[in-house]
Amino acid sequence: MKHGVHMDGDVMIAGFFPLYTLGIDLSNSEASRQEENIPLIFKNYQLVLALSFAIEEINKNSELLHNLTLGFDVYDVYFEPWAVLKNPFIWLFGKYKIPNYSCRRDSKSIAVLTGPLGITSACIGTLLELYRFPQFTFGPFDHALSDHKKFPTLYQMAPKDTSVATAMVSLLLHFNWNWVGLLTSEDENGLLVLVKLKEEMAKNRVCIAYELVISSKTVSQMFKFMTIYSQINKSSANVLVIYGDNESLLDLMICFEQLLIKGKVCIMNSQWDLTTRKNYFMLGSFHVPLIFSQHHADVSGFIDFIKAVNPSKYPEDFVLARLWFVSFNCSDSPSDCITWDNCLHDSSLDWLPGHIFDRTLSGDSYHIYNAVYTVAQALHEMRLHQTEVQTMGSSKETVPSPAQLHLFIKNIQFYNPAGDEMILDEKRKLEPEYDILNIWNFPEGLQLTVKVGKFSPYALHGNQLSLSEDMVEWAIGTTETPHSACSESCGPGFRTSPQEEKAACCFDCNLCPENEIANGTDMDQCVKCPDHQYANTERTQCLLRAASFLAFGEPLGMALACMSLCCSMLTAVVLGMFVKHHDTAIVKANNRALSYILLISLILCFLCSLLFLGQPNTVTCILQQIAFGIVFTMAVSTVLAKTVTVVLAFKATSPGRKMRWLLVSGAPNFIIPICTLIQVTLCGVWLGTSPPFVDTDAHSEHGHIIILCNKGSLTAFYCVLGYLGFLALSSFTMAFLARNLPGTFNEAKFLTFSMLVFCSVWLAFLPVYHSAKGKVMVAVEVFSILASGAGLLGCIFSPKCYNILLMPNRNSLHDFRDKRHSRRNEPSYD
Fold this sequence. Notes:
By secondary structure, the chain is an alpha/beta fold. The strands form seven sheets. An eight-stranded mixed sheet has the order 8-7-9-10-11-14-15-16, sandwiched between helices. Helix 16 runs parallel beside helix 19. The longest helix has 34 residues, at 618-651. One of its GO terms (cellular component) is plasma membrane. Belongs to the G-protein coupled receptor 3 family.
């Protein structure tokens, strides 16, 4: 055991730990002469100290294993496949290594500890299973070792990495890293985690820039990695998620440590022993490692135990002697008896730098600690059981058989001294929590592992990750958090537009359409504002629309109202003038009653336009269209009656004609009530089926919601308008045919021109009305009413007013008689 560690006890636990980096056959004489050149992994010596600490703590515990002490034998384990079973053979069968033959007189071993690599545990487990030795692996959980049919006597102390994918993705989301690379090992563990990583990334919209799956230590894979390393460097992804272990990926990564560009952030699992390689690229100042390590409780007293360890306290520990000699420049004799002439008496492992010997209990050491307590607890329960069943006459206690221990190990459940619950059943094990570690390497060579955060799967969603960003040491020369995204985030007001044949994280940013907003970042769709709201110019929020309508107070409304009042007052003045001069020839010759009716109708037409101004309500909406239709029908039907009167007057000049009877009987006067009654009927049907109502227009004017009257039934509206047009065309046609009839007071020409203006206005109204929106549409309708009414007033009555006011000689009966003698054939219309 010159290259191992031994502590005697009533029951022994064997351990196979990787204490040396090279598996040298020490039975070879030449290798023995170079013994002092075998490099020792100082950090791995903590595994031995954890084993020793746990056993000493148990042996001092009076309530556990009464009158029975534990001891241990620790052997080095070789990584080479041909040498893995060398020391297990020596442990089982002695120095002659003959299977099933042991020169050792009394084997007190009860259990075996192996690790940390799964491949070495599997090789040793195949041998141990033949002898039913309980085997405890202290390395990371390996799915290949969880096959109980293949490894029925093997127990894994580490829990599964059930939450590591969720933990890593939560870290990516915390830093808004949505464009990352993946590098995993081509084994069962790596592939399972790879699947979970992809699922979690897909859920949270994190895209994979590239994906590398590497098998361990194969030349072909090395060349494969060389062909795609440029993809890593050329990719815009500055984050690389790595899941693997030292055995599968570390050596390949070291070969290319100089090829990775500066500033890459590597998110890793805790299966990497980062500080065992002096030139390992993750420890350089150009790359940033963030490591997820399974959380474990602190074991009180362990650091004090390390400070007290020295070779004189453990004289049979040759590994400690070698560590002491190399670290503190002691001199030892070539014999097995070691002297420490030049060593400082107060030297301690606590003096060694952290990158050489870490005093903080590692995850593997904690699993060894728990494995020892599991063995002790199982032994304790087995001895209690034996005490109950043994015969009263037997007082001799026998060392328990390793095979008997399995029954008590499988269902064991207890709390270790650190307060953690220990369960070996994989189905009942709790999900692990994770510490997030960052390695500080500034100044160069510091290699200090610092806890910067924690992930707990038991916390509420959104609070599972806690991180102290100010404690994270990024790459040298970098002061800001690294950025890793395929496309820059689309800010508020913009939506994402996927790029063709690229990942979902690669997109363009497009401004939201009008009246739609995006109040977050990287939104797929813009949200349309409600009708009573509108989007601001930045498209970031919906603002309340201001109510708008054609009000009396605004310039356009005020102008139309003034025009309406002025036109109605002017018409009233004309009416007053006609009443005052009712006995004059011009007034009498043009049928006074029809002129009065027409003037009153025009006054009402001008005033009904006021119903279109101001805030609409149900009453005004109904009155607008009904009043407009009926009043204008009355006006146009009056014009039609006047036209018919002119025609009948000329047709009735011959004696005995029926036309004269129609003229004398006043038949044209019935045109007005009949035509108006038809329009009233149409309006009644309109009101009974789909009457006008108050409506809103949220699209015509930005930032405003226009309150207006909806016509209700457009069919009824166009029927009313069409009927009015029919009357106007009839009047125009008849007046046009009578325009050349002779007569001093023949107004057929004026009626023709007035109806031409009237029809022109409303023909122009239809296209303009349909192209206008909002308040402009209302203004167009009001202006059409005023224009058509003004056309009738001006064309029909302005010549008459001119004669009455400025040419009174033309408005006298004397003048009328003088002209009658000269024009005997001229009729009288009144």
